[in-house]
Write a structure and sequence with these properties.
- This protein is of the alpha/beta class.
- It is 37% helix and 16% strand.
- The protein has a single domain, classed as Alpha-Beta Barrel (TIM Barrel).
- The chain contains nine helices and eight strands.
- Helix 8 crosses helix 9.
- The two termini are 17 Å apart.
């Protein structure tokens, strides 16, 4: 069984001391391909560097480039050009993380919306899919995204935590949906148990969002409570349980979906690295 983790924050400071061990543990757990999330120019460049340092074969690690909506106020007249240059690198497989966050509002909403449109234009120009962040802003995301949708190759709402209305609005736009350990959280994620059955298997992908969102169903729990890509099989188990399918079946489907979405070549079998 092989899994693709479509969202790993490997540039996070908590992974800085030994990212190689994080990747090795993921491989050992069957998470054989990973997409490292870029959340700023600096972090996107760092993700690219990690891909090149930790995966000489260029078959296992890939990355994205974008500016998180929390940091939309940092966008300048040069940011689009710098991101476009980064996105031309072969390891880059999506535009983002970008989107709207009306939950924390760390950047003004009007700026978030303008910067989202800048990312969507980059996706149109590059032909790359879009890696979206959204919290408490699904209606505005749909409104902004709709005029661009026919010109976009694909788009995913990563770490989906919304309600049925939001899910159906995204599916109506032919968006992909990323599910994280949020579904394992008995305090706030139980609404996803029924909703996850509504996602077409051709549009469902799995992600750790590590080091965030440690699956609360995981036993034993790691010391320090930090999530890792190696724990993605726990998300797989929970999603498979609520969809009423086997873990092997779901793993094969979500892996094929992610590989197609990001343009990642399938692995014939686990390799020695």
């Amino acid at each position: 069984m092989q899994l693709v983790d479509i969202g790993v924050n490997l540039t996070h400071p908590t992974f800085a001391c030994d990212p190689r061990s994080v990747i090795d543990r993921a491989y050992a757990a069957g998470v054989t391909q990973l997409v490292l999330t870029g959340t700023s120019l600096v972090e996107s460049e760092a993700a690219l560097t990690l891909c090149r340092e930790l995966d000489k074969s260029r078959r296992h690690l890939f990355c994205t480039a974008g500016l998180h909506p929390h940091d939309a106020s940092q966008w300048t007249s040069e940011t689009a050009t710098q991101l476009k240059d980064l996105l031309a690198e072969p390891e880059m497989r999506a535009v983002g993380e970008c989107g709207l966050d009306f939950n924390r509002d760390l950047s003004p909403r009007d700026l978030q919306e303008r910067v989202l449109e800048e990312h969507l234009q980059l996706a149109v120009e590059t032909g790359l899919p879009v890696f979206h962040h959204e919290r408490d802003a699904d209606q505005r995301l749909v409104e902004i995204l709709r005029p661009f949708r026919d010109r976009l190759s694909a788009a995913v709402v990563h770490c989906f935590t919304g309600d049925k209305r939001a899910l159906y609005a995204y599916l109506d736009l032919d968006l992909h949906i990323g599910i994280t350990g949020w579904i394992c959280d008995e305090r706030r994620g139980t609404h996803l148990h029924s909703l996850v059955r509504e996602i077409p298997v051709s549009r469902l992908m799995l992600e750790s969002d590590a080091p965030y969102l440690l699956p609360r169903t995981l036993r034993p729990k790691p010391k320090g409570g930090q999530n890792e890509p190696a724990f993605l099989p726990e998300v797989l188990r929970e999603v498979a349980r609520h969809r009423g399918v086997s873990e092997d079946e779901l793993a094969a489907a979500t892996t094929a979906c992610a590989q197609l979405f990001f343009g990642i070549a399938p692995l014939e079998q686990p390799e020695q690295r």
